[in-house]
Amino acid sequence: MPDKNPSYQKLIQEIKQCQKCPLKKTCHLIVPGEGNIDTQIMFIGEAPGAKEDKTGHPFVGAAGKFLEEMLETIQLKRKDVYIANIVKCRPPHNRDPFPEEIQACWPWLEKQIKIIQPLLIVTLGRHAMEKFLPGQKISQVHGKALRRTIPELGEQVFYTLYHPAAALYNGSLRQVLIKDFQRIPQVLKIIKKEIQKQKLQSSFSSQPPEQESLF
Ligand code: URA
Question: Is the CB of 45 under 6 A from ligand 1?
Fold first, then answer.
């Protein structure tokens, strides 16, 4: 397998010098993302908050602590997965990122995904979900694994979760998020089984039909 690290390190340096949108002028540190670049699971949140902006690391505040707790329940640590955001700079006063900011930042995330090639992308919150599953409602797709073809990326499986920050102080959302989170290993197992099946099928005949929903 080729070493991903040189192209990954180069990309991170490029991201840290980005000037593509006005957020660069108001943020303190750009937060490119971090973790295991050989992981099978990539988590994608919304944008850095105050603590992330100060440290340059994603999900290090209260939402990050909650994310780490949930990772532990499925026997993972943050060093086992990759964590990034759809927007790499903190929007002023933690406002929602504007569509043009998400658009300007998209090539960075696209390149990160292309290098890492995760089996599963777990979106955290509505903004990350909308980037990959436009027109969907998070209340309807959370906890579901969906296979989609993204023009720049090809076929990819997405698993939508509520944002840990939204669930942190909302008891019922918190329970839903924890329950959805527990299914991540099962989703991965199904993806791996399907890959095996597709390999077998393609060694025999033509392409398998594209599936939209795994379950
Ligand atoms: N919320 C996010 O969406 N991303 C972070 O990095 C931190 C909080």
Answer: yes
Q: Identify whether the C-beta of residue 78 lies closer than 8 Å to the C-beta of residue 41.
A: no
Q: 42-74 pLDDT, tens per residue?
A: 999 999 999 999 999 999 999 999 999 999 999
Is 207's pLDDT higher than 60? no
Count: domains in the chain: 1
Domain span at 109: 31-196
CB-ligand 1 contact for 63 (6 Å cutoff): yes
Task: Extract the tokens encoding 133.
Answer: 């599953």
Q: Tell me if 65 is assigned to some domain.
A: yes
91 within ligand 1 shell (Cβ under 6 A)? no
Looking from the CA of residue 164, the nearest atom of ligand 1 is 1
Distance CA 12, CA 163 (A): 25
Q: Kindly state the tokens that stand for 31.
A: 């937060």
